[in-house]
Structure formats: structure tokens, C-alpha cells
């Protein structure tokens, strides 16, 4: 049941696949070098394994507690959070001027994978602080940065994203919370919000709420939303805490999983708030937080998958049943049965692909800010934009899929809560839903990201994948090679078809009908690309006589497993990409109910 | 939250797809005719909707209770069970000589789909009685039939299957429970068993345990296992209940789902038992029960998927978010967004395919017993054998998949337990595990079923599918037609490759490495065949000017949805079928742990 942070995998993926060296080369991270990658990840591993993982079960069983208008964190969580903040983990990527360590986002994501894997419910708390940090850094005033940003970076306070209302979920434009000017530069915030993760707790003295609401004269819909900051306790000019603000939790949800993450219903009753950024630009500002959070949720998918995989692997090595066709052993460990070996191999391959996708998105985000030229920054920004919905949706689907396979490897024991596999299956299920459902991600991909610059980001990606394909005959021939070629063609065909339909006056429904399949296709193929790059790097290291040969050979086999079990599906996804809106219209509500 | 039994779908599937008429034509079911199908299903619908569905939530929340060596069923369950038995639902397919109604198995399965959908935890109780009935009917003595079978058929007592021990799950050959002759024809049964579904409860006065154990002189392994019957209370010669037998539950498992189904740890401490069937033939006898139970579990998958689908459909029709690209409505029901419509359409198509697969397996089972000639019975038996692992595994995968999509359609509300979608997701997860994991089903398919008569069953199936393909141009052209043709070819290629590898001295690991993918391929394609047959029948009914045109047109669209979203994947599964054992061996335990 212990968790072992995959430090070697994380370093390999960052350096050999995602291209962290290019981030270091920008010079934007003065304290960062290759040695630091290992040091940070080893320290993260130690904390996640030693402090967070042991609290995962009790957090599931006891959960957070709501009583009398306040939330108490699950047993041990408040203390663990304080250790986490003291260790500097809340400020890894924050700028040094705010007290952070100004390390690359990609490295922070890698470190946080271990946090989410060890304790997904815990990880949400700092994840949301990081999102608030991003927003304040981007659009906060100097005073807001002084007052709030530094406290979020130090981890003394935590942040919360406050968006959803009962009638406004995927469509935030429908929200009705209001903020009325008080005449002194502050606003009076009123409304009820739901799904506020870690909206209240007792782990820190104060909580900074980033709240979407409407000014009195705001236009209706998404263009009339502004971003506000409301602090649980008023902050006095000297930085000390004053009176309690007029908002409070009125309940926490009883959820399928992540029981230790309090999902609050919050009531704002004339709470004092500050405007953050420009009036009526709230959605745009929130998307600064949201994009970072989406990538972080993708990393959650990787983390929970890794945790589920490790437990299934341990079980398969210990549990003995039946004779192995390989070893001939009569009462063999089930890992020596081909079908179990297949399941574990596919799990490992998907995790490695999702990890590389997320960390590559992190590298793209770093380079989008810090690459040397405008042109390079623009290109990396396009890659980040294209990859963010993939990283979020594809990786969280992998999280659910691998967690489910993990249950299955355990057989009957997997269904027993004490075993632990079931918790991962329950916890993992939230990740495809929050921070924009995976359906919203697919619509974002085909609706916004694919169309930018006439599809240039997708064309660039296809060109990059073809460049890797050209190198692949060094390693593979026959099917493993053909499958990547066919898969790239499928991405190309699907992309061109969608761009065509996007350009057509009557094409909108066709594009949306194929959105989910296109996202899956892209994720499957980009994942294959990632593993192919890893295999090539492993070969180069082997050829140089360096590294652990068995481990490096494993990376080469991993691509082949993925090619047979995942890449093989790429071309078949074209059928669903192109199914068209007309067919779905024939499946009318009456037909569906009939 | 209400459940509406899909009576029209069930009747259509039984009569137009599965071929229930051929069962009626055998004359083996004297009281059965087409009118009775509707009457039985309407009555089942009424009971499932009115009595069982309302208990589903409380069963999940309260669960069954273990205390002081006895299990109390969840609130309301004991009373519901007694009504169920009084309604005659435990004896639908049992022979009239035992007090049953001697109706076709296929009709019983259709009726039970509504039971499992309404309340999966409840349905397990009669499902296991039906399995015990099958075994006693097949190999019980006349005295056993008189004493036990009639009480199981009437539902006055329930049955339990008692197989698993901690060290003997998938490999029952490792079990160690013993049965020592008492010298009076009875045996003294000793051992500890786990995963005994409804092993104890307070819904009936007595419970009949069908237990696998070893005789003192039995050979080791699977050939030394015998089947015993142990009754919770001794039965006196006059049929009344005597003293309590020496076995008892020592606990119930705390599970991910089906909380109202008590999963017992049972201790047998010199319990008095009778031998059922022949000594050392226990596994063969148990497989009579097991095969029926496997098909019934497939139907559970269909039922839980239907329930999850209905709730998601209701939510999608009520929940409003964002502008519809079809209707232009600003705050449209989410069913009018193409991606949600796609999800619901795919869910419906998969359910229809799984339902038809299971009911066709039921028809094959009926005809395997009752068709006119030896040759026909042999042929139907082969079809039943081939379809049973498909029905079990593919349908339960559909159950999990659809339940997960149901959560997703709900967005954030899906993760909240009060919504109900999460319960289906949790409940559904057991079905791929019990009665032989889906991995075991895949091994059964490629190991035993495929090889019978040199693959004749698969060849017959392929020929039948080609016959339907030849009719399909009446309805479809282009892609929907091509996809079925390609899919059949994929089944053919995969089958021949596997038969080849089976024949090779070094092929065993290759066959097992491809087992899971082959089962999925077969299920996907057979499912498509089922929907194609349904579409052809719908067209014929339309052409005859009969039926509800909109509903029948819906059946025609349903195949197209399936063709684009599921059948399209068939050929790509070949990659995984043929991945080979060598590749998986390269993914050694060390590589997997590295």
C-alpha cells in the first residue's frame, strides 16, 4: 500500500522527452539547473511518501467535517499542510519577488504529481492556491500582491476558486452573484456558490477567495462578469488579520471520492471584496487561473493512475493463482499470467504517455513565457494552448481507466474498500469533470484551439511528429513503425476534415459531434509520440553505454506495448470524428427516450 | 430518479433480434406464447418499478447489517423478497414438476434485467437461487429435488454459491475445505469461505448452500473437488425445519457498491452436508450453475447500464446550459448539445447491443436444450458456449462504461452521492469481477470455446453475420455498410490467427496475450450484428405499415451510431489481438516496477 514516487521516470520524462533543458537555457530561472531537478523531486518524493501517503486512507474514511458554519480538515491534514508550506512547496514556481523559488512550471508539475498520487484530496488545496497565485501575479495590483500574493506563496494562507452557481456550471455566463461598490473602493459581494474546493478549512488562518460576480451595471452573459477577491478575514494595513468577512460555508458535499477535500457550498452575504483586474474581464482573468488548473488536473490524472498502478503491480507480484504458461510454476504470481501482464503493461504505457503529455505542456507553458524570441514564444504558446485540453482530458481519462484496471487486477479484493484500489477508482472519477468537463475540453480543442491561425498549431504538431517518425526506423520496423505512421495520418485526416467543416456555414454541429473522438485521437497519438521520443532517447543512452540497460530497454518495449494496444486504434477513431451532426439529430430526445 | 422498465425494447429484442419464436416453436414450453411475453414483462416492470427501484437508494445507504453471527437484510429488502417470491418470480424458468412455470430462459433473463436495473443488490439474491436450481435440476437426486428444489423454486428458501477461499479464487483447484463422510450418507463440512453472496440474511427461513469441498481421499487440484449441499437449518423428513446447521457468517465485506447484497465470510465447522452429483465432479457440476450465473451477470451489466442511462437522459433533458447549435436556444437543455447527444446515443446503442447479445445467448441456451434435432441442439449449444463469455464480459464492460458516461453527463452533480449516478458507477464495477473475472472469460473464450470442433462455432457465427451483411444494402450504403463488412473480416482474421497460434507448440502465450482484445473485438462486432438485425426488422415492420414509425426509424439510426462509434474500432483491435507473448515477456516484473 506504500507509494513510491517515480523519481527516475519523472526526471527521464522531463529531460529526455519534455525538453526541460530548453527551459533552463532561457536563463529565466537563475537558480535552476539539472542537479536541482533531481534534488527537488527527491525531496518531493520524501514528503509525499512519508507525510501525505499515510494520510490518504484516513482522509477517505473520515473526510472533512462540516459543523456550525465551519469546516475542519480530515485528521492530520492541517498539520501536514503546515509542514508542506514550511517546506516551501507552495512557492516552487512563484517569482522570487513574491517569496517564491522561481523554478520552471514543468518541474513544479512533476513534483506535484507525487503530491496528487500520494493524496489527491490533499493536493487540491495547494493546487488551487497556485491558480490564485497565477491570477494575482497576472492581473493583481501591487497592493494586492503585497497583501495576498506573498501569503499565498508562503502557504500561510490558501486560495480558492469560486465560480459555479447551481444554474451556472459549464456556462458561467449564467451566474448571478453580485458585487455592489461600497464607495470606498471595495465591493459588497452577495450570492451563493457551489463546488468551492477547500472553500473553508482549519489548516490556515486565512483563505483568499477568488470570486466571479457581476457589477450592478454589467451587461448580461459572459461579458458582464468580473473577478473579485474576498478574504475570509479582513487584512489590516499592517498585514495582521482583522474581523471575519461576511461569507461562510453552509455545507459540504457528500461525494463519490476525494472525501478529504471539502467541496463547499458558500454563502456570500454582503462580503467585502476587492476587484481584481478589469471590470467585466472576469472570465478572461479567471481563465488565467483555469488554464493552469486544467493542466494541474491532468497531472492529478497521472498521479492517481500511478498510485493505482503501483498497488495493482504489488498485488500481482504477491498474489498466486494457477499455473504460468511462461514459467510453468503451478501456483504462480498472477503477474506471470499473460493477461495480467498485458493489463499492467498497458497501464504503465498509458501513464508514461500521459505524464509526458502533461510535462511537455508544462515545458510549453514555461517557454511560452520565457523563450528567447517573440516568434518562439508565440509558437510555444500555441503548443501550450493546443495541449492544455489534451493534457486535462486525455490524462484524466487515463486516470479513470487505469484506476479501473487496477481494481480489475485485484479481482474480488479490488471491490473491497479495505484493499484501497476502490478509493483510487472513486477519487479518479472527479478529474474528468471539474475545471471544465472533458466534453468542454473537447469543444475547446475543436472550437478554439484548432482554429487559431488556420490550424497552424496542429500543423506544427503533425510536422514535429513526422520528424520523430523519420528517426524511428533506428529502433523499430514493421508494425510498431507502421502504427505511428498510420496514426499521424489519422490525425492529419481528422484535422483537415474538421478545419473544412469549421469553415463551412453548416459545419458547426459536425465539428462538435466529432469533438470527443478527435480529442481522444489526438491524445492517443501524441501519447505515442511521447513514448517514441522516450524510446529514441533510451536507445541513445544505451548506445552511449550509459544508464541502466534493463530500464532503458523497458522504455523501448513500452512504446511497442502502446503501439499495439493504443496507437493501433488511432485510424479507427476517424469513424467517430466524422459521424456528423445529422446522425445525432436523428437520435432525437424522443428516440433516445423511446 | 424513477426507473422505467424498457418493455418495448425487451419485447422487440426477444422477438425480432434474439429469435424467441424459435423457442416457442419447439413445443417445450406448453404455456408459452407471444402474448405471454408481453404479460410477463409488463408484470415484471410493475414489480421492479414499484417495489424494487424505490429500495435501491436506502439499500446503498444503509446496506445489510452483520451482528452477532447473523445478517439482517437492508431495510425493506426482506419484505420485498417475500413479495417477489409470492409473485412467482423465482420460478419462471423452473420446470412445472418442481412448481415452476417452465418459461424460456430468455424470457426470464429479460424479466430479470428489470430486477437488476431497479435494484442490482436485490437481484443477486434470486439470481443465485436460480443457479442452485439449475444445478439441483441437473445433478440432484430425487430426494434432493423434493426437499430443496421445490423450496428454491417457490422462493421460500434461497440458494447460495460457496466457492471461493482466500487462496482459491480464479483457481478453484487450490481450495482446501473438506467434507468427511459421517457414515450415514451425510458429510461433515469444514472450512472457511469468502465472497458468499447473500450467504446469510433474514428474508427467508432457510438458505441452501451449494459448497465446493474435498473428500478425504480426493486427488489434489481441480479433479478432487466435490459439490455439497448444506442447509442453514436441517430439514426433517416431513419437510419442516429442524436444528441449526454448524455454519455461520463471521462477517460481511465493506464494499465499493451493492451495499445491500451481503457478501459473507462463512465458517463451516463440521456442518452436515449432502453430496450433490458425483464425487470429484464438483467443478463440472458447479459450472452448470456458473454458466447460468455468468449469463445472468451479463444481464446485470445491461440492467445497470439502462438505469444509468435513464437517469442521465432525464438529467440531460432538464438541465439547461448554454446555446444550442441546433435550436439556437440560449439556455438550452444539454441534450441539445451535440457532445451530450453523442454520449447518450452511444450509451443507448451499447445497451441495445449488450441486451441483444445476452438475450440471444438465452435463446441459444433454450434451443440447446429443446431444439428438434441432435444436430440443432449441438449447434445451439456451441453458440451458447461461445456467447456466454462474451455476454458476461462484454456486457459488464458496457455496464461500467455506460455508468461512467452517466456520471459524466451529470457534470459536477454526477460526483455527488445524492444524485444517484455515482451509485450505478460503484455498483456496476463488481460485474466484470465476479463469476469469473472478465480476464478469465477471455481466457475461456480463446482457450476452450474457440478451440471446440476446430473453431466451428466461430466459423458458424461468421457465416451468420455474413448472411446479415448480405441483407444490409437494403438499409445502408457507404460507411455504415462498409464498417460491418470490415468488422467481420477483422473477426475472421483474428479467429484464424488465434486458431493458428493455438495449433502451434509455442503459441499458448500468444493466444493468452490476445485474449482480452479478441473478446472485445468479438463483442463489438456481434453487438453490431445484433443492431443490424434489429434495424432490418424495423425496416420490415415499417414497410409493412406497422408499428411506431419514429421508434422504428430510431432503431435504424441506432445501428449507424454504433457503426461510427464502436464497429469502427473493430479492425484496429487486431493490433492488440496479435501483440504476442514475447512483447509482454519483455515487460518483465522488473521493467514494470522500474
Automatic annotation (TrEMBL), chains A, B:
Keywords: FAD, Flavoprotein, Oxidoreductase
EC code: 1.3.99.41
Residue ranges of every copy of the Acyl-CoA oxidase/dehydrogenase middle domain listed in the record: 160-264
Superkingdom to which the source organism belongs: Bacteria
GO molecular function: flavin adenine dinucleotide binding; oxidoreductase activity, acting on the CH-CH group of donors
Domain Acetyl-CoA dehydrogenase-like C-terminal: 463-586
Residue ranges constituting the Acyl-CoA dehydrogenase/oxidase C-terminal domain according to the UniProt record: 280-445
Top-tier EC class: oxidoreductase
Keyword presence, Lyase: no
A Pfam family of this chain: Acyl-CoA_dh_N
Reaction catalysis annotation: 3-(methylsulfanyl)propanoyl-CoA + oxidized [electron-transfer flavoprotein] + H(+) = 3-(methylsulfanyl)acryloyl-CoA + reduced [electron-transfer flavoprotein]
Record flagged with keyword Flavoprotein: yes
Cofactor: FAD
Residues annotated as domain Acyl-CoA dehydrogenase/oxidase N-terminal: 78-156
Recorded family membership: Belongs to the acyl-CoA dehydrogenase family.
Role summary: Involved in the assimilation of dimethylsulphoniopropionate (DMSP), an important compound in the fixation of carbon in marine phytoplankton, by mediating the conversion of 3-(methylthio)propanoyl-CoA (MMPA-CoA) to 3-(methylthio)acryloyl-CoA (MTA-CoA).
The protein, known as: 3-methylmercaptopropionyl-CoA dehydrogenase
Organism: Brevundimonas basaltis
Amino acid at each position: 500500500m506504500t507509494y513510491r514516487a517515480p523519481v527516475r521516470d519523472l526526471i527521464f520524462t522531463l529531460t529526455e522527452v519534455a525538453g526541460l533543458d530548453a527551459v533552463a537555457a532561457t536563463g529565466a530561472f537563475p537558480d535552476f539547473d539539472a542537479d536541482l531537478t533531481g534534488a527537488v523531486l527527491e525531496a518531493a518524493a520524501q514528503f509525499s511518501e512519508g507525510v501525505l501517503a499515510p494520510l490518504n486512507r484516513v482522509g477517505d474514511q473520515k473526510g472533512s467535517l462540516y459543523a456550525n458554519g465551519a469546516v475542519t480538515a480530515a485528521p492530520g491534514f492541517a498539520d501536514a499542510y503546515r509542514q508542506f508550506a514550511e517546506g516551501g512547496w507552495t512557492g516552487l514556481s512563484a517569482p522570487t519577488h513574491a517569496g517564491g523559488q522561481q523554478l520552471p512550471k514543468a518541474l513544479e508539475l512533476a513534483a506535484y504529481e507525487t503530491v496528487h498520487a500520494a493524496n489527491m484530496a490533499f493536493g487540491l488545496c495547494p493546487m488551487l492556491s497556485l491558480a490564485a497565485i497565477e491570477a494575482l501575479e497576472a492581473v493583481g495590483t501591487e497592493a494586492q500582491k503585497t497583501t495576498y500574493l506573498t501569503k499565498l506563496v508562503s502557504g500561510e494562507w490558501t486560495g480558492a476558486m469560486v465560480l459555479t452557481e447551481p444554474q451556472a456550471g459549464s456556462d458561467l455566463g449564467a451566474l448571478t452573484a453580485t458585487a455592489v461598490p461600497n464607495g470606498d473602493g471595495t465591493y459588497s459581494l452577495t450570492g451563493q456558490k457551489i463546488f468551492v474546493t477547500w472553500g473553508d478549512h482549519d489548516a490556515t488562518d486565512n483563505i483568499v477567495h477568488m470570486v466571479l460576480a457581476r457589477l450592478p451595471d454589467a451587461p448580461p452573459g459572459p461579458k458582464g462578469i468580473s473577478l473579485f477577491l474576498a478574504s475570509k478575514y479582513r487584512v489590516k494595513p499592517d498585514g495582521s488579520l482583522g474581523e471575519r468577512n461576511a461569507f461562510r460555508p453552509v455545507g459540504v458535499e457528500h461525494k463519490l471520492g476525494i472525501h478529504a477535500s471539502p467541496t463547499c457550498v458558500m454563502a456570500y452575504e454582503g462580503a467585502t471584496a476587492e476587484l481584481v483586474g478589469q471590470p467585466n474581464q472576469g472570465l478572461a482573468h479567471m481563465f488565467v487561473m483555469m488554464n493552469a488548473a486544467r493542466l494541474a488536473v491532468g497531472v492529478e490524472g497521472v498521479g492517481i493512475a500511478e498510485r493505482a498502478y503501483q498497488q495493482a503491480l504489488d498485488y500481482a507480484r504477491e498474489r498466486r493463482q494457477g499455473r504460468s504458461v511462461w514459467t510453468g510454476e503451478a501456483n504462480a504470481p498472477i503477474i506471470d499470467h499473460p493477461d495480467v501482464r498485458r493489463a499492467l503493461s498497458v497501464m504503465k504505457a498509458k501513464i508514461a504517455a500521459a505524464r509526458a503529455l502533461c510535462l511537455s505542456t508544462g515545458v510549453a507553458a514555461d517557454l511560452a513565457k520565457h523563450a528567447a524570441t517573440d516568434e518562439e514564444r508565440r509558437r510555444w504558446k500555441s503548443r501550450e494552448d493546443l495541449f492544455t485540453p489534451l493534457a486535462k482530458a486525455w490524462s484524466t481519462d487515463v486516470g479513470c481507466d487505469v484506476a479501473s484496471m487496477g481494481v480489475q487486477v485485484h479481482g474480488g479484493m479490488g471491490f473491497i474498500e479495505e484493499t484501497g484500489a476502490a478509493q483510487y477508482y472513486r477519487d479518479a472519477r472527479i478529474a474528468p469533470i471539474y475545471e471544465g468537463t472533458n466534453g468542454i475540453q473537447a469543444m475547446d480543442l475543436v472550437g478554439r484551439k484548432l482554429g487559431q491561425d488556420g490550424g497552424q498549431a496542429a500543423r506544427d504538431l503533425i510536422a514535429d511528429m513526422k520528424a520523430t517518425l523519420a528517426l524511428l526506423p533506428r529502433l523499430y520496423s514493421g508494425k510498431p513503425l507502421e502504427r505511428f505512421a498510420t496514426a499521424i495520418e489519422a490525425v492529419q485526416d481528422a484535422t483537415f476534415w474538421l478545419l473544412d467543416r469549421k469553415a463551412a456555414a453548416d459545419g458547426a454541429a459536425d465539428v462538435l459531434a466529432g469533438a470527443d473522438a478527435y480529442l481522444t485521437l489526438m491524445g492517443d497519438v501524441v501519447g505515442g509520440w511521447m513514448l517514441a521520443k522516450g524510446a529514441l532517447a533510451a536507445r541513445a543512452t544505451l548506445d552511449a553505454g550509459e544508464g541502466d540497460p534493463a530500464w532503458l530497454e523497458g522504455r523501448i518495449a513500452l512504446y511497442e506495448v502502446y503501439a499495439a494496444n493504443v496507437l493501433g486504434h488511432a485510424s479507427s477513431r476517424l469513424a467517430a470524428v466524422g459521424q456528423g451532426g445529422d446522425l445525432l439529430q436523428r437520435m432525437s430526445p424522443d428516440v433516445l427516450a423511446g
